[in-house]
Design goal:
Protein name: Glycosyltransferase family 2 protein
GO molecular function: glycosyltransferase activity
Structural class: alpha/beta
Enzyme class: transferase
Distance between the termini: 21 Å
Pfam family, one: Glyco_tranf_2_3
Order of helices and strands: EHEHEHEEHEEEHHEEEHHEHH
CATH topology of the largest domain: Spore Coat Polysaccharide Biosynthesis Protein SpsA, Chain A
Organism: Sedimentitalea todarodis
Mean pLDDT: 92
Shape: globular
Number of helices: 10
Number of strands: 12
Length: 343
């Protein structure tokens, strides 16, 4: 169940809205204090086209001394009111960590026009906030604008996507040329050189969203702990008639997977954590219903089963994660058929 809607502003004490567009940047940290501080500095050192920008940094009960390190750096650098720290005593996960700030912003008399979600392992490479804000200012039908992403090596990576489907799950799990070509129009990742324009969803590591739309959506769905929460949010946004834009002129460098140890180019036999499978199941349940989730799950398993002999014949690694069939059956298919709590 979604949380209660974000608190509306106090209309009795509303102050006049400044002419300049206002942006709140939200970074949720977990065990990556040094990277988070670099992300903060990448925002503070830009001019953002004269826009008013505030930063909110949520430490999600990080292990070690992250909270103390962030607080000390806040004082040393004299960040003052430009950076507000939220030091949580529980790891809320990504979506709920962001919702802490969204709820606060919704209770203010002067909420921002836009919210920019920035991963702690990401940094602005140019005036990305100004570029993304310009696009949303010029496109009233759009609610989200996402930046292009490069690795620290400078290699561009996919940052715009189609929504997942049963067909895409089968094709990507099979990893077989004829199947891939047959379902080319269903594959989730769009090419890194995809042109500017409307897409289904953009990478959550660097996306600008209209605050009023976030309020209407009640923020991120708190049922998700980590992964798929931004996809589900943009699915709801699209369902409500808003567009999502990919804007490759805005550039962000992303040290992918530094906080979660899950990378798009990691060895395929790495095992996925349980919360990843939980999020996959929740996404399909919420967007396709139980029947659609079961179809997508069966298609993924069928594609993975096809990949086993194909990979052996080609002398390649199997496509699915390590212990996939055991984990997927227990964490996804069993709860879908028998109900939650039946692992």
């Amino acid at each position: 169940m979604l949380q209660q809607p974000l608190r509306p502003p106090n209309h009795t004490h509303r102050v006049s809205k400044p002419a300049t567009t206002t942006i709140a940047v939200v970074i949720v940290n977990f065990g990556a204090a040094e990277l988070t501080m670099a992300a903060i500095e990448s925002v503070l050192t830009r001019v953002h086209g004269g826009r008013q920008v505030e930063l909110h940094v949520v430490d999600n009960a990080s292990p070690g001394d992250d909270a103390a390190v962030l607080a000390a750096r806040h004082a040393q650098r004299g960040w003052g009111d430009r950076v507000k720290l939220w030091l949580e005593d529980t790891n809320l996960g990504f979506g709920r960590g962001n919702n802490v700030v969204l709820d606060y912003l919704g209770g203010r008399a002067d909420p921002p026009d836009y919210v920019f979600f920035l991963n702690p392992d990401a940094e602005l490479e140019n005036e990305a906030l100004a570029i993304l804000s310009d696009r949303l200012d010029a496109t009233p039908t759009a609610a989200v604008a996402g930046a292009a992403v490069t690795l620290p090596t400078g290699q561009p990576v996919t940052a715009a996507f189609r929504f997942p489907s049963a067909r895409s799950e089968f094709a990507q799990a099979a990893n077989f040329g004829p199947v891939t070509r047959l379902f080319r129009g269903d594959l989730v990742p769009l090419p890194p050189n995809h042109p500017e324009g409307q897409v289904d969803w953009v990478v959550g590591a660097a996306m600008l969203v209209r605050f009023q739309v976030l309020r209407d959506m009640c923020g991120f769905d708190p049922d998700f702990f980590l992964y798929y929460e931004e996809v589900e949010l943009m699915w709801r946004i699209r369902q409500h008639g808003h567009d999502v834009l990919y804007v490759p002129a805005a550039l962000v460098r992303h040290a992918e997977g530094m906080c979660t140890n899950i990378k798009s180019d990691q060895p395929v036999r790495e095992r996925r954590p349980a919360y990843w499978y939980d999020s996959w199941r929740l996404y399909y349940l919420k967007t396709s219903g139980r029947g659609g989730a079961i179809r997508a799950g069966l298609c993924w398993m069928a594609g993975a089963a096809l990949n086993v002999p194909l990979a052996a014949l080609r002398g390649q690694h199997q496509q699915m994660p390590k212990l996939f069939f055991r984990d997927f059956s227990r964490l996804v298919m069993k709860p879908l058929f028998l109900g939650p709590g039946t692992r």
